[in-house]
Design brief:
The protein contains 11 helices and 11 strands. The protein is of the alpha/beta class. Strands 3-2-1-4-5-10-11 form a 7-stranded mixed sheet, with helices on both faces. Strands 7-8-6-9 form a 4-stranded parallel sheet, with helices on both faces. The structure holds adenosine-5'-diphosphate and 6-O-phosphono-beta-D-fructofuranose (F6P).
């Protein structure tokens, strides 16, 4: 059990995600409301190591709940992976009186928080990533907004794809995970969805599928390709050569990470940011806030980092059966 915390530090780390600001606001105001001091740590672990740390008051987080990005900025900080970097981060927490740290980010960021907690800095992780690829939680801050942004973009590509009777390969983010691709594929009614978890690189099967749907009179053929598979441009060239049908690749890229957060992201991020502070006030440390089976819960960081989750077989099967018109064979 940690001693009663007095000063909370908040940082965002890894890729930014819509809703991170809502979590910052909630954590800051929850802490201030409980009589604690709050410090904003800028640029993730980089700012902790380089002492980019400023007091954060209740007014400093005004008007940010609806803003995309993160007002604290973020970074990928290789130094934090070294013992020297971690030692410097611990030293700076102590120097600035930070005895409770809220780390908003993904698994990598939690690995940093784990090391700080092991060295005596009370730390709580809050899941923030558009990728939804954190094993211990069914929700991560930013996924809802990003998947809606991508879906709207795909709907637009589909319009032009239909007008030109083309094949469109649309690449969505997600690093090595296919959640964004699968949700977009189902929500946009794509003809094919290529997921890193299951794609077998059988391009001929896709080509046969395009030829078959064209024969049935389909005016477009949307292929959602996950970033974890990539190579969309080269794939488009090969498919065009093999089918004789105009094929274009669109890589949605970083537009998926921006924009004003959805209501769900604002709400869940608010609850998670506040819960992180509540845990610190309760004397807890080395925990990760999560959403599981309809509840906001928390897990030990070591356990959380060891957890895995799988893409839903049922959803994958649905993606196929609803847009392929194919017959399920048992
Ligand atoms: P995410 O947090 O979204 O998974 P990254 O994997 O890029 O994103 O991690 C964010 C940052 O967390 C890294 O740039 C690094 O500073 C820190 N980090 C990642 N892995 C570790 C690790 N094993 N030990 C210490 N710090 C780490
Ligand atoms: O983790 C979020 C994410 O957007 C991934 O989907 C993507 O692989 C990665 O970050 C891109 O990172 P960067 O913005 O550093 O190129």
């Amino acid at each position: 059990m940690a001693d009663q915390v007095k000063t909370i530090g908040i940082l965002t780390s890894g890729g930014d995600a819509p809703g991170m600001n809502a979590a910052i606001r909630a954590a800051a105001r929850r802490a201030i409301g409980r009589g604690l001091k709050v410090k904003g740590i800028y640029k993730g672990y980089e700012g902790l190591i380089n002492e980019e740390i400023k007091d954060l008051g209740a007014r400093d987080v005004s008007d940010i709940i609806g803003r995309g990005g993160t007002i604290l900025y973020t970074a990928r900080c290789p130094e934090m992976r070294t013992d020297e970097g971690v030692a410097k981060a611990v030293e700076n927490c102590k120097k600035h009186g930070i005895d409770g740290l809220v780390v908003i980010g993904g698994d990598g960021s939690f690995a940093g928080a784990q090391k700080l907690a092991d060295r005596g800095i009370n730390a709580i992780g809050v899941p923030g990533t558009i990728d939804l690829d954190i094993g211990c939680t069914e929700y991560t801050i930013g996924f809802d907004t990003a998947v809606n942004t991508a879906m709207e973009a795909i709907d637009k590509v589909r319009d032009t794809s239909t007008s030109h009777e083309r094949v469109s390969i649309i690449e969505v983010m997600g690093r090595n995970a296919g959640y964004l691709a699968l949700w977009c594929g189902i929500a946009a009614g794509a003809e094919d969805v290529l997921l890193p978890e299951i794609y077998d690189y059988n391009e001929q099967a896709i080509i046969n599928h395009i030829i078959e749907t064209r024969k049935k009179g389909k005016k477009h053929h949307i292929i959602i390709n996950a970033e974890g598979i990539g190579h969309s441009q080269a794939m488009a060239k090969r498919i065009e050569a093999a089918t004789g049908i105009g094929t274009r690749a669109t890589i949605l890229g970083h537009m998926q990470r921006g924009g004003s957060p959805s209501c769900k992201d604002r709400m869940y991020a608010t609850i998670m940011g506040a819960k992180a502070v509540d845990l610190l006030i309760e004397g807890k440390t080395k925990r990760v806030v999560a959403f599981k089976s309809g509840d906001f819960v928390d897990f030990d960081i070591n356990e959380a980092l060891a957890m895995t989750k799988n893409i839903s077989d049922y959803e994958v099967e649905l993606a196929k059966s609803l847009s392929y018109n194919y017959v399920i064979q048992n």
